[in-house]
Structures are given as C-alpha cells and as structure tokens.
Amino acid sequence: MPPTPAAPAVRFDKVSKVFRTPRGELKALDGVSFDIAKGEFFGLLGPNGAGKTTLISVLAGLARASGGRVTVMGHDVVADYAAARMSLGIVPQELVFDPFFSVRETLRNQSGYFGVKNNEAWIDELLAALGLADKAGANMRQLSGGMKRRVLVAQALVHRPPVIVLDEPTAGVDVELRQTLWQFISRLNREGHTVLLTTHYLEEAEALCGRIAMLKQGRVVALDRTSALLAGRASTMLRFKTDGALPPAIAAQARVTGRIVQAKARDAAEVESLLATLRTAGVKVEDLEIGRADLEDVFLEIMQEGAHA
Ligand SMILES: Nc1ncnc2c1ncn2[C@@H]1O[C@H](COP(=O)(O)OP(=O)(O)OP(=O)(O)O)[C@@H](O)[C@H]1O
Ligand SMILES: [Mg+2]
Q1: Segments forming the whole domain that contains residue 211
Q2: Same structural domain for residues 176 and 200?
Q3: Measured from the CB, is residue 54 less than 6 Å from ligand 1?
Q4: In whole angstroms, what separates CA 165 from the centre of its chain?
Q5: Taking the CB of the first residue and of the last residue of the chain, which one, N or C, has fewer CB atoms within 10 A?
Q6: Ligand with minimal distance to 19 CA
Q7: Which atom of ligand 1 is nearest to the CA of 20?
Q8: What confidence tens digit (pLDDT) does each residue in 16-59 have?
Q9: Is residue 163 domain-shared with residue 272, that is, in the same domain?
Q10: 282: phi > 0 → left, psi -120 to 50 → alpha, else beta; which?
Q11: Structural domain total, the chain
Q12: Could you tell me if residue 211 is inside a domain?
C-alpha cells in the first residue's frame, strides 16, 4: 500500500506484546496507541521495564507485536518492512557492533546495507559532528564505551532517515558529548527529521521534547505537550538540605536524594506550613529554595498515581 502524504511519522495503533516466559506470560505492551507527527521531537519516558525498548523493537521490526499495528511514514512495519526500515534510523540501547571493522568501515558497511552509494561526504560530516574524526581509522574494539555509542549514533544516521529513534543515547556518555549530540540531533530536527527519544535524564527530555508519552507497565499513562504536563501538575517545590530526620508528614511525600529534600507545596500557605512543621520538629534547614516543579517531579507524581490505580 502506498503511503499517504498525510500519514504521521509514526503511528502506534493498539500495540500489544506478550512475552512467554518459563514463569508464564508477561504483557510488556498493553494497547499502546499514539501518533508522532512529522517534524516532532517526541519523548518516550517510563521506569525500567515499562516497555520502551519493546515498543521500539516492534517499531524497528525486530520484534513482532502480539496485536495492533505500527506504521512509519505510512509504511506498515510488517507488511511493508523494507520501506519502513529505510525510513528509520535507530540508535539501540545495547552496544552492539562488529569489533573487526574500523569506525569508517562500520559506517560504510551500514551505508551499503541501506544501498546508499557515494556516502563519504555525509560520513565525514557525521564523524566531525560526533567528535569521531580522529577515530575514523580506529578499530571498533579500541574505542571507549562512550565513543562506541557515538558510532552507533552515526551508524543510525548514514542513510539520512526521516525518523530518528534514540533509545537512551546518553547513557554513559560524558557531558561534552551530550551537548554535541543534542546540538546535532536538534539541528536534524530543525531540518525536518522526526525524533523519538527515550531517556532517564528527565532534564534532557524537558529541554528537548515538544511532546511526551509516559509508559508504565506497558500502558500509556500520560501523553501531552511537555509544557502542558508541567503546567497541569507543576506546583511549587520547596528544596533544602538537611542532616536531620524529617517529620513523618513531610517524609511521606518528599523526594529525598542524599541530603537534598524536595517537598511539594500548592501555594504560599503550604510553604509556610511546611516550614513551620520543620521548625517545630527542630530540623535544621540549609540552602532553602522555592521553585517550580520540574519534569522529574511530574514524572514521579504520575508514576505514583499509576501505582495507586
Ligand atoms: N525478550 C524478552 N523476553 C521476555 N521478557 C522480555 C523480553 N524483552 C523484554 N522483556 C520484558 O518486557 C518488559 C519491558 O521491557 P523493556 O526492555 O521494553 O523495558 P524498558 O522500558 O526499555 O526498560 P529500561 O528503562 O530498563 O530500558 C520487562 O518486564 C522485560 O523484562
Ligand atoms: Mg529500554
């Protein structure tokens, strides 16, 4: 079937995936439906085991859905596999590569796989953009973990796919490369490429993604514009450091990271009451800040709601 011009970049339509394991059936995806429009920078978030990589595997044609349908640029990923695959550039979560090839050979091989000829100029651009120019001749097994991940990114892009899928591309990647990578991916997005990103770095998702879907136990539990997700829930956050034990009423709802405590307050009155509770309990508070909730706060709230449901 020819793709329709109006087709979204990606369409997930009631996608389910059941894994049969020795301990019974595991429903990794349970009726996932959403569209990603052409040109979007879309975030797919969720805790470990939520089903993000499974959904991407189905999209990539690496796993077969147990039910439902997926299209890429209008091409069904099963019935029209070749066209769908050609439209996708996938940076996998796992580092998989052939240790016997150099970086440049790896990229040439991948170009060949997609039938792209005379690709040297683009390969050079990818190498330069990802800080790999001086490693072009190095053997894959001589590279550090972060450099291998850069090669995986370059490899996903050799055929200039309209849809770029990144499954935790910044896991184990240093700050400098993260910046370089996001500049480059943002440029491609501005030039019209659609981007689907999964990450556990919610600051990245907040900064980059126009829309976000949150998965939990194989279901979409939130789907909205990033700004709407933040505005719909974000309340005031009180952040401070302390060595003291928190009063139970605050401990029950606060997010604690080492010495840093973040507690939610709907308005100024709640801020005052939180501070009063801390003072009464004799908890010494340092570096107090009051700010808006961020995507991490929203994420935790949504995941907790899911747990109660
Ligand atoms: N091949 C498989 N066989 C059996 N179960 C699987 C298989 N692949 C994934 N699962 C299970 O499916 C669920 C979803 O896994 P998935 O890898 O999609 O999660 P994820 O959201 O990508 O998590 P993470 O953030 O850790 O990468 C998990 O419970 C996982 O154990
Ligand atoms: Mg995963």
Answers
A1: 10-230
A2: yes
A3: yes
A4: 9
A5: C
A6: 1
A7: 4
A8: 999 998 999 999 999 999 999 999 999 999 999 999 999 999 99
A9: no
A10: left
A11: 2
A12: yes
121, 241: one domain = no
pLDDT per residue as tens digits for the range 176-206: 888 989 999 999 999 999 999 999 999 999 9
Q: What is the CATH number of the domain that holds 164?
A: 3.40.50.300
How many Å apart are CA 100 and CA 114, to the nearest integer? Answer: 20
Which helix or strand (DSSP H or E) is residue 113 part of? helix 103-113
Any ligand 1 atom below 6 A from CB of 49: yes
Residues 99 and 218 in one domain: yes
Q: Is the CB of 53 under 6 A from ligand 1?
A: yes
Beta strands 286-292; 194-198: pairing state: unpaired
Answer yes or no: is the C-beta of 161 below 6 A from any ligand 1 atom: no
Ligand 1 atom closest to Cα of 218? Answer: 14
N-term to C-term CA, the chain: 41
| Nearest residue (CA) to ligand 1, atom 6 | 19
Mark which of 230, 251, 273 sits at the end of a domain: 230
| Ligand 1 atom nearest residue 46's Cα | 21
46 lines ligand 1 (CB under 6 A): yes
Q: What is the pTM assigned to this prediction? A: 0.87
Is the residue at 122 inside a domain? yes
C-beta 19 within 6 A of ligand 1: yes
Residue 46 near residue 202, CB atoms below 8 Å = no
